[in-house]
Every structure is written in structure tokens, then in C-alpha cells.
Cytokine-like nuclear factor N-PAC (Pterocles burchelli), 540 residues
Amino acid sequence: GKLGRYPPWPGKIVNPPKDLKKPRGKKCFFVKFFGTEDHAWIKVEQLKPYHPHKEEMIKINKGKRFQQAVDAVEEFLRKTKVKDQASSHNSNEEKNRRNSSEERGKQSTGEEKRKASLSEGKLKKGTGEGKKRVSSVSSERGSKSPLKRAQDQSPRKRGRPPKDEKDLTIPESSTVKRVMTGTVAGFKWPPSVSEPVKDSDPHFHHFLLSQTEKPAVCYQAITKKLKVCEEETGSTSIQAADSTAVNGSITPTDKKIGFLGLGLMGSGIVSNLLKMGHTVTVWNRTAEKCDLFIQEGARLGRTPAEVVSTCDITFACVSDPKAAKDLVLGPSGVLQGIRPGKCYVDMSTVDADTVTELAQVIVSRGGRFLEAPVSGNQQLSNDGMLVILAAGDRGLYEDCSSCFQAMGKTSFFLGEVGNAAKMMLIVNMVQGSFMATIAEGLTLAQVTGQSQQTLLDILNQGQLASIFLDQKCQNILQGNFKPDFYLKYIQKDLRLAIALGDSVNHPTPMAAAANEVYKRAKALDQSDNDMSAVYRAYIH
């Protein structure tokens, strides 16, 4: 389903910097991407030869940045071909002798050295979008180092010792032999759907965050495609987890899943849980919202207590702290269905005090509790591309693995209950403040006689370029404020983030200013519109 979501990208294998450790696990190569000059470790199964797939990839991706990358490949190949021709007549005899003796031994390594295109976050380098799949090394170190891959795999290299990239053989369309023994120019490619994928959903990352006394942070990631180790302020290791899927599909848990709350976020989540084969029982305060999901195969729960009592793991996604408390503590609420072993996962964005209180009452009844607020919007929810921030019961977090893979692209485990609530509020504080700033800039452009469209074009060419910026500006320019993230909820998150700052005497003046603008927008009846409707608070 999600495979091939992003286009492939051309690059070549180069020598990594000496101080960069090679990831453990499956064989991978250090790749330099054309056009962007970024580097990354890429596993062999993600590599495809350049020439056989060139035309196909150009058809897939019409972007200017991609075309520039292809042009860079062609220029690199042209220069190398000229140099190869100039020197090849001196070494043909020796080359033929070695090729005949080494060809069989290199057959498999040639396959491993094929280059290809990365279908993940590296493709969105320009916008910073995409999923964190690889550890990118932006320095130019190693970009001109001799390619030692072939030397590692065969007793001898071709006729001359390489001094830098100019001496490395680039594959032409003639034969695989040349691919085996030198730099490979090609596309980084998503795994073929026909290939068995031994990990879970290929686009899902699962981070287990352990906070130590040191500033260092340790991530263990369940990611599908590769293992990466990176050195930053502390030690960060990303390691692949056990497999749960074949051919990129998710193996759903056999546990019975309950879901309470079918709003903008909950609806997309439930739809994806059902699509991936989970058994789901749903409940919503207004029951008619359940009808569509019943048609898709969900079961109907009459009360929250009934859902919890009949399911193994019950998720909830409601609007605010009051709704979250009422759902648990109210009549026929969650708490009445809790008994030892029952699991409750609250995905609502609330404050740390609220979620801590809910955790305590659930656990006091013998239940297991996990907070798991999500970063995203209706579109990302529908696409199964949410970012999940979890904290609480670590075992329950792992039991939710297939569910999180169905609904999200990345999951973080942040430790004890309350941590996810705090982190989520900070994330939404930044997002809400940025949205208000976008609206402020667009309205200032308008009143000073500047083109709003031109402002957007300029921003999209700069370092602020992002899907969020573009979509929200488009909403404003088109006057389309259909909710993707309710304005009233981003204001609620700003309010809670400011209160979080108050609790530790930390200033939040930017959030406070943005909050005032959203409050004005609410007074102008924009609560049930998208957050981009904060624009209307600036119109005189």
C-alpha cells in the first residue's frame, strides 16, 4: 500500500568517513546522493542499477530537483567514460585476465552493489519531510575516497589502484561486470513487493526512548529496513526489531481491539486498523458515526464500559482533558469495564496531570495504561502516517505494535506516564505558533500591497519550505477552512502548553501571543474551522 510513496533517488556508492561505523546486520553500502550531496547507509536490497531503471524513474518523478540529480549522474558518467577510454587500452589485457578468473566470485557481490533509490525521508531532503530511515551524513568527507567495497570482496581490484572517484568504474549498460568492480551509479529503490520483508511495516519506525542522568538519549528503533548507529551529543542507536510481516503487510495482533471516539483523528485510525485486519469494536458519543465502520467490519459497543470489558486493548481519542476524564470516570465509563489485565490506551492530547490521574485509577483496578497522543491531522490519520508519542506501560506499548504500525509511520516510547503529554503539548505549541505566524505574514503582505501568492512562492523556495506551510497557505489563499485540525483544539493545546510553562516558571511568550490570536479567532466563530482560519483574526 505505502510502498513507493516517494520517488527513488540517484546516487553512487562511495567510501564512508573513517570515523563512521558501519551498521551491523544486513549488508549495506555508503551512498552519496546526486544533486543533494547527502550521504546515507543503504541496504543492498534497496539498490537498483541506474541504466535499466532510468527512464521509468524519470517518468515517476518530474521534479526539478530530481532532474538536476539525473543531470549530475549523466555528467559524472560522461566524464568517467572519457577517462576510462583514455586509460583502458593500457590495461585491457590484464583486465580480461582478471575478469575471467574473478567473474564467478563477483557474481553475488555485483548484485549487492547495485544502487538505487530511497523511497523514504531522504527523498524529501528539500522539505525535511518523510520518515527517518537513515542516518544522514551531510559532510563531504569520504565523497572522494576510493571505493573499497570491491577490494573487500575480491582479492584484487581492476588494473590500477584508485586515487579518487575519477578512477572508479561507473556501470555502463553493457555488462554487470563493471557494476561489480567499481562505483555504482543508480537509484535507491523501495524493496520490491515480491520480495519477502522480514520486518514489520516497511515505513514504520518505533523508537524506545530511555532517558539517563546524562544528556545522552538512547533510541532503540523498530524499523523495517535498516540498522543505523549515529554519534551525536550522546550515543544514539537505531536497531531493527523482530519481523512481524511479509511483503510489507502488517500481521495484525490477535487481541481484540476497542476504540472510543470517532472524530477527525479517530475515524482515520479505526479505518486503518480495520484495513490491516484487526478486530475492532467501536463506540462514539453520537452513535451514527459508528455506522460507516460497522459496514467496514467493526463491531458496535453500546457503552465505553462494554467495549473495555469485551476487548483486550481499548484505545480512546477524545477532544480535551474534561472529555478524557468523563470517558473514564463517568457513568458506564471505561473504569467500570476495567479488571485485572485489561489495557487502556489514551490517545487524546491532554495535560500531564490529567493523564497521570487516569493512569492511577486504571492501574488501581488492575488495568494496564499507556498514553499515546498522536501528532498529525485528518489527512495523515487517513493515510496511516501519524506520529505516535507513547509513555507508561512498556509491555503494553509493545503489544500495540501492529496497531501503531497500522495507524502511524513512527512511534516513540518516552518513559513514564506524563512524558508523552508534555512532549505532545510542546510539539503542538510550536505548530500552533507557526500557524499564527504564517497568517500574520500573509495578512501583512496583503495590507502592504504585496502578493500573497508570491510570498508563498518565496517561502517555498527557502528553508522554511514544508508540506505544512504550503498546505496551510493554500487553504488561506483559496478560502478553504475545512477542518484538518480544529482551530479550537490547537488553541486548547496552546493553553495547556502555556500552563505547562507556568508549572515550571518557564516563559512562553510566543505561545502566549499566538494563543491570544486564536482566542480572537474563536470569538469570530472559527472554532470548528481548520487552524488556518486563525487568518481571519487578522482581517481588519
